[in-house]
């Protein structure tokens, strides 16, 4: 660049200018995130010679290996630094190439691409791509899911998705986990199963059978289905099925019915399909010998109704005749259905005996074929016959014999409760109630008898003599429960039972039910006391027992711990009235209730008790302390909500209490119908598991602070599930005034954290995060401050940032001064900077020098005159000044470029100062003033320029426009000058013809012209008044010839001109004697001149 300026300053313009071409005019860079992109572009000269110059990238992220270049062709290598940029970022910029062939721009676009993983199906860059891969090839998708490369795909997905995957890597990464991940990311819907049919019935099955039913799924994906059966006759070949085994969206499940394991009647079975999300049931019913079974069942049912109605009769709610009539109809019907059934016959006789129809009974019994020695005879039926005969006659001897016979039979069959019941009624040994009960009790424990008739026999003993009930063992309780259940209990026996129950030390469920049934018959306070006492001893706090505690409290019974159990059993949601006043009074002096029950007590008091009452005043401080204590423990339920609203005020809250309030304001109750859930994990946006709440039948309580919090379910088998588990959420506490308190407090905390986290703005942070992430005014302030702190020292990145701010109209005088000193880039950018700097009166000499130098080097000057004028005024570098003046003069003379008056004045001024002025500058000045007026000072300069140039035989047609005296002195006055502008490197020939007046035309003469200056050709002729010049030019270049138009030139005749040619013209214009006299005078003067002036 310096060499070219030096040559230009000396007027050497014989510097070949390259003809630049760019194979690539736009560059697209696809940069991987955080990567360093390497690329190159080239330029070349179509002609000969090397290309020299500089390249300026517009972005600080672009670095060229060499800023300068020299060669042909030229390859410019560069790098683009993508660090800190996120995918999707696009930067448009340019390379500005300033060279000896001109100034050019090559645009570039840098695109930051998402990271990707290459699979056999192509790039996977997003979750959408991964979903498609999962659909096409689940195995490869699972492999990628397990790989740490999967993080590359998730890098620019939602942070919640990244957090989910982070945690899933800690749990499991199998196909089911992949399914959960896709569902959790909303990339697919959860798989639901449906059955084409929900049940199947088989009638008259005669052998084992294999069958199928169809399971359908709603969408693609992976799911494991556990298959199990209920019913011994059912089995399946596969106990585990996956959706991989489905054909399309359907699967046919095979099952087998084993005929050998069927029982008579209806066999009910189920095939249960259990997935992580649901349980489906396919019901199977198989009928075997249904008709006969149904008939037997109907007979048993009718026979049982006879016994039930007998119990109603025993309870006194049915008279004997009515019962007999009903029972006789039923037994007769049964006998007609089964005529050979001996039991029906004997029962028929028994009913007649009880109804005092002795003749009918006798007739029936006589029809019975009794044989004590018959082989295979049912001993219980034979014993039953003997027992009935004793009821028919009053023969004591016969009764004794029957008793002996029954005693023998019982000894042989001690497991028969029926024989025992008959024996105790006929044997005199059992006439004592205690003996009878002893026998029955012994049989109860030994044989585990649970028959209704057996219980009835025992109860009759207690009913007959209540004092025989001396304890409440299992036998007694079961008998009494039977009596109470069938409304047989007497009031005396009920009170007796209640008294004994109060003395027990442990809870008995059957005894409790007995007392409850007894209280339903006889509402006695003694029985109620026994019920409550028994419940308290059993620590029964379930809500189902509350009604007994409530009755006892309302009855004001004096039972130890009654009020504690009353509060323990009460269900808060069902309390819609004030608690009994006795409850308030009981707990006034302290209590050991848990916080739920205390909250119930206090909230009820707040809701229903007048604040001015003594009870409320006594509780007030206690309730307020309780409210603050529970708040700090983060407890919340509907009862606590009432208490909080009454006592929590902002004035009384400290920081920790506001934090606690913030927590409970974001408390939720989560419930689901999906079974086997064990825990709920709450995952924050950053992936941290903030909570792990145990899940119970009542649900779980969690704190959800943001919409980005995610719930993940953990089942009892340790697997984790995301959005595939449907659930219901209920906010436990939401009050606007408390939310406002929390919001103000959290905003102050957030602001403090942000202030702590704010990283001091510096050039390094701007380089790291990019200009676009900060405010323009903020960046401008940083630049201005940094420049001053560094005492205006140059820094490449600072220069880049300052110019970016300048382009965005964000600058001050400091930034302009710095840029004027150091910025170097595209000429248009530097000129824009120069104009702004001048408006701010910033010193621009260095900037102007760079602009002028660069424009001269590239030979692309436009709009630079004001810049040069200011540069000249501030003191220009002499060599650069001379180069500029020379170049501008040449452009004016050779290329007809417009010339500013100021530039002409500078040339003249420099000449007057005695500075060396090259010929082209002189020619330009002469050309400029050839058509303009000039001052006296300039007149002297112009004359000198003419003298000096003509002395070098340099002349142009416009010289003839100057003063006559100068032209006469320079011997140009009587000359004719013609000019031709050719192309560089061409050969120019002049073809001319001088025609004299009244003479014949002559042939054209030819002459090879030499350039007067570069490609300007000038030929000097002397034309007399009777001569005419016709001429044209012929130019040859690269084998091609071009001819100009013919032109004609003649001299205007003027008498009396001085000089030799003037005298000759006068002779030519004269006629006759006057011509002769002028010829003689010319000859005389010529001889004198030849004598006086000797030629050396």
From TrEMBL:
Domain DUF5717, residue spans: 1-747, 795-1093
Domain of life: Bacteria
InterPro entries (alphabetical): DUF5717_C, DUF5717_N
UniProt-recorded name of the protein: DUF5717 domain-containing protein
Upper classification of the organism: Bacteria, Bacillati, Bacillota, Clostridia, Lachnospirales
């Amino acid at each position: 660049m310096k060499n070219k300026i030096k040559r230009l300053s000396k007027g050497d313009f014989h510097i070949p200018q390259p003809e630049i071409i760019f194979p690539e005019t736009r560059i697209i860079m696809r940069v991987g995130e955080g990567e360093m992109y390497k690329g190159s572009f080239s330029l070349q000269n179509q002609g000969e010679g090397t290309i020299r110059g500089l390249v300026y990238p517009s972005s600080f992220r672009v670095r060229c290996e060499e800023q300068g270049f020299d060669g042909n062709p030229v390859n410019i290598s560069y790098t683009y630094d993508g660090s800190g940029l996120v995918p999707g970022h696009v930067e448009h910029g340019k390379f500005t190439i300033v060279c000896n062939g001109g100034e050019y721009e090559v645009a570039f676009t840098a695109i930051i691409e998402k990271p990707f993983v290459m699979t056999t199906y192509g790039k996977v860059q997003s979750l959408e791509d991964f979903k498609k891969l999962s659909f096409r090839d689940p195995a490869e998708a699972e492999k990628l899911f397990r790989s740490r490369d999967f993080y590359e795909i998730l890098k620019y997905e939602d942070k919640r998705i990244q957090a989910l995957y982070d945690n899933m890597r800690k749990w499991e990464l199998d196909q089911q986990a992949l399914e959960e991940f896709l569902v959790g990311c909303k990339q697919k819907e959860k798989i639901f199963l449906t059955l084409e049919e929900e049940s199947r019935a088989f009638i008259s099955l005669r052998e084992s059978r294999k069958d199928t039913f169809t399971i359908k799924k709603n969408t693609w994906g992976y799911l494991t289905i556990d298959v199990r059966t209920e019913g011994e006759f059912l089995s399946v070949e596969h106990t585990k099925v996956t959706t991989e085994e489905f054909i399309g969206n359907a699967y046919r499940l095979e099952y087998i019915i084993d005929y050998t394991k069927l029982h008579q009647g209806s066999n009910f079975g189920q095939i249960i399909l259990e997935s992580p999300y649901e349980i489906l049931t396919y019901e199977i019913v198989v009928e075997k010998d249904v008709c006969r079974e149904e008939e037997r069942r109907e007979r048993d049912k009718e026979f049982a109704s006879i016994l039930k109605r007998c119990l109603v009769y025993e309870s006194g709610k049915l008279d004997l005749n009515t019962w007999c009539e009903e029972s006789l109809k039923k037994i007769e019907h049964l006998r007609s259905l089964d005529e050979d059934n001996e039991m029906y016959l004997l029962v028929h006789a028994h009913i007649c005996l009880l109804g005092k129809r002795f003749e009918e009974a006798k007739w029936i019994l006589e029809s019975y074929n009794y044989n004590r020695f018959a082989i295979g005879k049912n001993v219980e039926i034979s014993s039953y016959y003997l027992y009935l005969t004793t009821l028919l006659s009053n023969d004591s001897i016969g009764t004794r014999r029957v008793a002996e016979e029954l005693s023998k039979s019982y000894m042989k069959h001690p497991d028969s409760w029926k024989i025992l019941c008959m024996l105790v009624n006929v044997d005199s040994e059992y006439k004592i109630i205690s003996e009878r009960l002893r026998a029955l009790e012994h049989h109860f424990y030994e044989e585990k008898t649970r028959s209704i008739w057996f219980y009835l026999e025992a109860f009759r003993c207690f009913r007959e003599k209540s004092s025989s009930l001396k304890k409440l063992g299992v036998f007694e309780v079961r008998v009494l429960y039977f009596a109470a259940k069938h409304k047989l209990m007497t009031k005396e026996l009920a009170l007796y039972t209640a008294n004994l129950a109060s003395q027990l030390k442990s809870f008995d469920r059957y005894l409790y039910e007995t007392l409850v049934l007894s209280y339903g018959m006889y509402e006695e306070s003694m029985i109620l006391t026994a019920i409550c006492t028994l419940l308290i001893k059993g620590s029964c706090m379930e809500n189902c027992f509350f009604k007994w505690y409530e009755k006892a409290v309302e009855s004001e019974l004096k039972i130890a711990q009654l009020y504690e159990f009353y509060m323990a059993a009460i269900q808060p949601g069902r309390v819609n009235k004030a608690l009994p006043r006795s409850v308030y009074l009981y707990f006034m002096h302290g209590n050991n209730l848990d916080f739920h029950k205390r909250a119930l007590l206090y909230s009820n008091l707040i809701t229903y008790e007048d604040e001015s009452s003594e009870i409320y005043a006594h509780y007030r401080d206690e309730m307020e302390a309780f409210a603050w204590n529970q708040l700090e423990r983060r407890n919340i339920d509907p009862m606590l909500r009432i208490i909080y609203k009454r006592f929590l005020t902002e004035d009384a809250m400290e920081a920790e209490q506001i934090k606690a309030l913030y927590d409970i304001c974001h408390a939720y109750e989560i419930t689901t119908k999906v079974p086997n859930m064990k825990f709920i994990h709450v995952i924050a946006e950053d992936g941290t598991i903030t909570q792990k709440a145990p899940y119970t039948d009542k649900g779980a309580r969690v704190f959800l602070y943001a919409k980005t919090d995610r719930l993940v379910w953990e089942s009892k088998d340790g697997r984790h599930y995301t959005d595939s588990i449907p659930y219901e959420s209920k906010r436990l506490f939401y009050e606007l005034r408390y939310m406002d308190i929390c919001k103000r407090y959290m905003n102050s905390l957030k602001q403090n954290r942000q202030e702590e986290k704010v990283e001091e703005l510096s050039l390094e942070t701007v380089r790291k995060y990019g200009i676009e992430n900060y405010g323009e005014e903020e960046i401008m302030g940083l630049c201005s401050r940094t420049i001053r702190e560094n005492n205006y020292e140059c820094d490449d990145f600072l220069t880049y940032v300052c110019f970016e701010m300048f382009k965005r109209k964000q600058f001050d005088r400091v930034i302009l001064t710095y840029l004027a000193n150091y910025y170097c880039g595209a000429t248009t950018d530097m000129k824009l900077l120069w104009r702004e700097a001048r408006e701010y009166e910033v010193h621009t000499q260095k900037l102007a020098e760079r602009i002028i130098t660069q424009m001269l080097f590239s030979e692309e000057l436009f709009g630079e005159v004001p810049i040069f004028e200011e540069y000249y005024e501030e003191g220009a570098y002499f060599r650069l000044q001379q180069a500029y003046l020379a170049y501008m003069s040449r452009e004016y003379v050779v290329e007809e470029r417009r010339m500013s008056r100021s530039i002409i004045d500078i040339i003249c001024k420099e000449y007057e100062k005695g500075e060396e002025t090259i010929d082209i500058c002189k020619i330009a000045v002469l050309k400029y003033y050839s058509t303009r007026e000039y001052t006296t000072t300039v007149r002297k300069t112009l004359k000198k320029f003419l003298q000096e140039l003509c002395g070098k035989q340099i002349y142009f047609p416009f010289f003839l426009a100057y003063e006559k005296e100068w032209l006469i002195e320079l011997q140009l006055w009587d000359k004719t000058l013609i000019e031709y502008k050719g192309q560089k490197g061409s050969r120019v020939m002049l073809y001319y013809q001088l025609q004299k007046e009244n003479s014949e035309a002559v042939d054209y003469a030819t002459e090879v012209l030499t350039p007067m200056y570069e490609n300007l050709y000038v030929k000097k002729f002397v034309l007399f008044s009777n001569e005419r010049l016709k001429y044209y030019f012929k130019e040859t270049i690269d084998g091609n010839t071009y001819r100009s138009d013919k032109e004609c030139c003649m001299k205007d005749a003027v008498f009396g001109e001085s000089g030799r040619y003037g005298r000759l013209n006068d002779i030519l214009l004269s006629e006759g004697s006057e011509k002769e006299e002028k010829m003689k005078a010319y000859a005389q003067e010529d001889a004198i001149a030849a004598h006086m002036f000797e030629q050396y």
